[in-house]
Amino acid sequence: MATLAPSAVSAKQDFLPLKGTDHVEFYVGNARQAAHFYRTGFGLKLVAYSGPETGQRERASYVLQQGKIRFVFTTSLRPDSAIAEHVARHGDGVRVIALEVDDARHAWMETTARGARSVSEPHETADEFGRVTTSSIAAYGDTLHTFVERGHYNGTFLPGFAAEPEDALARPTGLKHIDHMVGNVGWHAMDEWVDFYARVMGFQLYQHFDDKDISTEYSALMSKVMANGNGYVKFPINEPAEGRKKSQIEEYLEFYQGPGVQHIALATDDILTTVAEMQARGIEFLTVPHTYYTELAGRVGRIDEPVEELERLGILADRDDEGYMLQIFTRPVEDRPTLFYEIIQRKGSRSFGKGNFKALFEAIEREQALRGNL
Ligand code: FE2
Q: Are residues 181 and 75 both part of a single domain?
């Protein structure tokens, strides 16, 4: 692994200043039920809705929020739509990673001038709460980046969405913000997408891992982490590497029918409480063997959390020269072995848990084998 010294890009040099992730939109088969899963299991609150009751005849969308995390679940109400086609091909998955900007027209012009494919030209929508400008470009697979300019808007989400009354079902679990979002791309395509984020969006290489860092007896992958100028947005990009058996990236690519978002890492300040809550609500996490915990103190040294507690919940730990971090991964959250979540608490460390890769990927492979896909 190599961690690159953060070379801060000054606001002046950064041609695509991002204020952070605005929202993530998922295309799903049944948005009402998906929303229920994230409300009860993850504790995101339903804050806004768009559908037939609000004059939207083609689709229904539920907007959920906790801390700075905002997820939108959208389904088609008809068989012949781009949303329905997306779901038929990919299953439930991420369609849009929306990024907040001060100027959505400028973001679209800068990125398309550098070779991005335009999906939606800048356009303004408005309601009684103000106006919003959005524009979109294509990223890997069928995934889009939408630039959202909401400086002149004070409604709940976007024009066309109705605010929901206070959500009595969702109880927060302590999730705060998106730490990173990982994309899986095809064989030998990692550097092409690393180049896309560097050239088209002004991101920089933040860390990289090769197949020696990320391999088990059976399979391997390679990963490069790209970060935007201010470091608020981090996109690791994975590609499969040759191994004796099928890697988890290949399994993803087969079942997602191409590149797409593999996992979303959600940050908490209290991972013990967050994970205990999520487990009590039925969210399923990967587990590692007992030996992982007998070796933990020797590998990461002193940490604030009791190792027995980490083992009881299945939480992993790793350390680098800046501090340590705690992380845990869910099983895939749909029937296809595609999207999953990471829950992460950083205590100084800015890295991605390299010391856990082997134990973690062996856990994933045990599940792959159960599915007959290893
Ligand atoms: Fe991650």
A: no
